[in-house]
Amino acid sequence: MTAIRKIPRALMQAFLWFYFLISLYPLIWMVFYSLKNNDEIFVTNPFGFPNNLRFENYVNAWNQFNLPRYMGNSLFISTITTAGVVIFALMFAYAIARLRWKFRETVRIYMIVGMFIPLQVIIIPLAILVKDLHLTNTYGALIIPYVAFGLPFASIVFYGFLRGIPYELEESACMDGASIYRMFFRIIFPILTPAVATIMILQFLGTWNEFLLAYILISDEALRTLPIGLIYFQGQYATDWGGMGAVMTIASLPMVILYLFFTEQVERALTVSSSVKG
Amino acid sequence: MKQYLGNKNAIVLFLAPALLLYSVIVFYPIIQTFYRSFFEWDGLSEASFVGLDNFVKLWGDPLLSTSLKNGFLFALVLVVFQIGLGTFLALICADVTVKGRKLLRTAYFIPVVLSVTVVCQLWLAMYDPDNGLINKIFHAFGLSYSQNWLNLPESSIFAIAFVNAWQYMGFQFALLYAGVKSIPEHYQEAALIDGAGKWRAHWYITLPLMRETFKFCFVICITAGIGAFVQMLIMTNGGPGTTNYTITFMIIRNAFGANQYGYACAISVLLVLISLIVTIIINKVFDERREEAR
Hints:
Helices cover 78% and strands 0% of the residues of chain A. By secondary structure, chain A is an all-alpha fold.
C-alpha cells in the first residue's frame, strides 16, 4: 500500500515541474526567437537557444518604432495615477475611518459599490463624459478615470488598516497642538507605509497593463500606452518575427522585474484583495 | 478630542477629491447606463425614449445566443483549467517536502504581470499554423497533425479561452495556495491518523474548508468568462465571421462601431444582471454546502 502511494508522490512533483514548463516555456521561446532571424525560427532551430545572438533585432525595435514613446506614456500615466489613487484614497479612508460625522457608514458602502461594477458596463457613458469634459486625446482622459476606478479598492484596504490604529496617536497630537492636517501627514501617513506600498505596486501594475479604457478613450497615436501601441506592431511586423519578439520582450521586462523585486508584496496584496472582496 | 476629529473643514477637505471623482466618473455612468438603455440614442443628437424596445430587439438579436454561448464556454475553460488544475497544483505544492516551491510559485505567476497584448501576440505566434510552436511540437514528435487553431469556427473559442486561462492561472493558483495554507495542518494530520489517505483527507477536510476561497475564485472566473473581450479583439477580431462574439464585444461594436449607444447600454444592463445572478447563485450554492456540512 505504501509503495503504491510513493510512486504517485514522485509523479505529482514531476507534474508541478511540468506545469512550470507550460507556464514559462512560451516566454522563453519568445525571448529566444527575439534573438533569431526568420530562417532560424521557422526552419533550422525553432525550439532552442539562438545559434548567434542577433541583438540588432532589439536595436531595430527600439529605433524604428514608437516604442520609447509608448513606454514613456505608460510610465507617466501609471505614475500619476498611482500617486493620485494613494493620496485621495488615504484621505478618504481617513475621513470614514477616524473622523467623526454622521453619514460615514453610508458613504463607505456607496464607495464599495464601485468595486463590483465591471468596467465595460460603464464605458459608454464614460466615453461621452470624457468628450463632454474636453479631455479627449489628453493624458487626463486616462488618468482621471484610472484614479476614480482605483479609489474603491484602495480606500477599503486603507480603511481596514486605519481601523486598527489606537486613538492615542491622535490624542497626543491634539494635546501637542498639531493641526489635524499636520498630524495626518506626519503621523498617519508614515504608519501606513506597508499598506501604501502594497496598493502602489498593485495600482502601478494594473494601470501599466490596462487595456479596455486605453483602447476606447485614446485615438491619438502619440498618446497610446504600451498595450495599445503593441497591437499596431503586429501589422507592421507580420513578416519579421525576431523584431516582434524583441518588441514584446522589451515591453514585458519592466513589469517582470518589478514583480521579481516585490514578489512578497504582490502576494500579500492578493490575499488582501480576496479578503476584501470575498 | 471630539472637536478635533469632528473638524468640519477637515472632513470636507479629506472627502471631497475622492468622493467627487468617484461620483462623476464611476457612479454617474452606472446610472446613465441603466437610464440610457430605454432610449434610442446615437450619442450625439437628441435621444428618444423607446421603453423596452432595446431589450426586445436584444432578445431577437441572433448574436446574443452566440455571445452567451461563448461567454459560458470561456468561463467553463477558466473554471476547469484555473480552478480545477489550480487546486490540484496548490494541494501538491503546499506539501512542505516539495523542493523549489518558491521558484515554482514565482514561475506560475510571471504570466499574470505581462500585458494582455503581449500574451495574445505571443499566442498568435504559438498558434501560427505554419511556424507556431504548437504545431512544431507535434511535428517534432513525428505527428503530421497540424491545425489552424484560431480559424476553426467550432473550436477557436477554446483556443482563445485557453490563452486567458494560461495567463491568469498564476493568480488563481496564488489564491488557492493561500487558501490551502490557511488551514491548520493538524486537521489533515488528524484525518491521516484516522487512516484516511492523503487525497481522501484533502477531499473531505481541506477542500470543504476552502469554501470561501472557492467562492471568490468561481465568481472571478465566471464573471471574467462572461465579460471576456480583449483576447477576441486581438486574436481573431470576433471571427471567423461573428463566431467569437461575446457580450462585451456586442457592447463595444454597437456603441463605438455602429453608434447605437442606447442599444449598447441595454446590452450592458444585461451583462450586469447576468453577473449579478451568477454571483448570487455561486454564493447560494456554497452556503448550502456549508449547511449540509453541519
